[in-house]
Specification:
By secondary structure, the protein is α/β, with parallel strands linked by helices. 39% of the residues lie in helices and 23% in strands. Strands 3-9-2-1-12-14-15-13 form an eight-stranded mixed β-sheet, with helices on both faces. The two termini are 15 Å apart.
Length: 306
């Protein structure tokens, strides 16, 4: 399968929780990407930013508390920072891995904005927990600002919306770079959610589920394959159960409708895979271990959905 376009969605296990962990783990992800390049794929990469964006948001909030001259950074700004920070480590790890294999191919990170609907019901039903643990007094202050909080870990944490992605503003740039043979890192953390107000894009206080944005990107970029690389071996119907090797559209729909998949983990991948294979002919989605990307695209491991 040569000269095919693939969108690779890297899970949070590809980065870790700290600076040293991230620099170590991106090398594993870089090997997976290099394997795909050797298999003659055009590669576009998306990635999680789970702990990173929370770390940035917490740090910026603490900074504003220490110095009243500075304001708290909006979530959209924190998301942009996380895209740059993760992209920096990831693109350099990929570049090094490719050069060590005698391959020269440019790698670029695109700060990506994703349009969301201001009337998305998610804004009234926030689900994403973010930031540090707060006291009751701090939680009350956040509530007075119009933000949502939830009791957790003996205190309170902020909780924000997770709206669905509608469009990706930088899609033409992403496609142009991919067409030129470059590796593109885009839509990190699900992209920066923005609201369109005339000619202005305004950052939304939200986090988009990165699996849904990965699917949207794969669809808009005319990819043939959507590959989710995770710490697991694929999709199973029970905790620790046997990995499903092949699933068709009807089977996946049935599993989703019967509630087999956890809403916070496998369900977003399952729904994204379903939407992607429904978006055109000869599309396939794969869920596999990050160390087995080459075997997965050759359909020798992981869960193959088509």
């Amino acid at each position: 399968m040569g000269n095919k376009r693939i969108v690779v969605a890297l899970g949070r296990n590809c980065f870790g929780e700290t600076f040293p962990e991230q620099q170590k783990n991106v090398k594993i992800a870089a090997k997976a990407i290099a394997d795909l390049i050797e298999e003659k794929y055009q590669v576009i990469i998306t990635h999680s930013n789970g702990p990173q964006v929370g770390m940035i948001q917490t740090a910026m909030t603490e900074f504003s508390r220490l110095d009243s001259k500075y304001t708290v950074a909006p979530m959209s700004v924190c998301g942009a920072m996380s895209q740059g920070y993760i992209g920096f480590d990831l693109q350099n790890a990929i570049r090094t891995e490719l050069l060590d294999r005698g391959i020269f191919k440019p790698v670029s990170t695109i700060i990506t904005q994703v349009r969301v609907d201001p009337y998305d019901k998610a804004f009234n039903e926030p689900t994403k927990v973010i930031g540090r643990v707060m006291s009751k007094e701090e939680s009350d202050i956040e509530e007075k600002k119009g933000n949502y909080t939830v009791a957790e870990n003996g205190g309170y944490r902020r909780i924000i919306a997770s709206p669905m992605p509608i469009d990706i503003y930088e899609i033409d740039a992403i496609k142009a770079l991919a067409d030129a043979g470059q590796i593109v890192i885009a839509a990190g953390g699900g992209g920066i959610p923005v609201l369109e107000q005339g000619t202005t894009l305004k950052g939304a206080s939200a986090i988009i589920e990165k699996d849904y944005t990965s699917e949207k990107l794969a669809e808009l970029a005319d990819a043939d394959t959507l590959l989710f690389l995770t710490a697991g071996e694929g999709i199973s119907l029970t905790e620790g159960g046997e990995v499903l090797s092949n699933i068709n559209e009807e089977e996946l729909t049935s599993y989703i409708n019967d509630g087999y998949f956890k809403p916070t983990t496998i369900l977003p991948k399952a729904l994204s895979a379903l939407w992607f294979i429904q978006s055109g002919d000869d599309k396939r989605a794969i869920v596999a271990n990050v160390t087995k990307a080459k075997e997965a695209v050759n359909e020798k491991t992981g869960t193959i959905i088509k």
